């Protein structure tokens, strides 16, 4: 169960990087980001065989919720925090590829990158 939480956190972090940008006061919290992207954990750690529809629903919902720069910046930072440090040990190249492909697969126009600058 602890690994499942780590997996979620890592995945959420990567996904949010794609949806985010900066501004002043965010109405979106890290808890909101994790909630929207929670279904993607099973999708990513099943090599893309489970919960794709639910994951895409969450990706689209997050994209809709993070419309202003402050929310995008907050989501980006949440994702980067989850991807950093020891959590990165749980993210394989296969998972990175699945994460980067999510926007296209879910019909959302943004990119995911582990090196995203959350201040842009």
From TrEMBL:
MF (Gene Ontology): lipid binding
Record family assignment: Belongs to the plant LTP family.
Signal peptide residue numbers: 1-26
Xref: Gene3D superfamilies: Plant lipid-transfer and hydrophobic proteins
Keyword tags: Lipid-binding, Signal, Transport
Entries under SUPFAM superfamilies matching the protein: Bifunctional inhibitor/lipid-transfer protein/seed storage 2S albumin
Name listed for the protein in its UniProt record: Non-specific lipid-transfer protein
Domain called Bifunctional inhibitor/plant lipid transfer protein/seed storage helical: residue spans: 30-118
Keyword Magnesium: no
GO biological process: lipid transport
Coiled-coil annotated spans: none
One Pfam family in the UniProt entry: Tryp_alpha_amyl
Alphabetized SMART domains for the sequence: AAI (SM00499)
């Amino acid at each position: 169960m602890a690994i499942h939480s780590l997996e979620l956190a890592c995945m959420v972090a990567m996904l949010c990087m794609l949806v985010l940008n900066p501004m002043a006061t965010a109405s979106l919290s890290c808890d909101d980001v994790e909630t929207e992207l929670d279904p993607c954990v099973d999708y990513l750690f099943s090599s893309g065989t489970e919960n794709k529809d639910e994951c895409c629903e969450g990706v689209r919902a997050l994209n809709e919720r993070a419309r202003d720069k402050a929310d995008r910046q907050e989501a980006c930072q949440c994702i980067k925090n989850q991807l950093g440090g020891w959590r990165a040990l749980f993210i394989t190249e296969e998972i990175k590829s699945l994460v980067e492909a999510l926007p296209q697969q879910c019909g959302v126009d943004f990119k995911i990158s582990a090196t995203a600058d959350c201040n842009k």
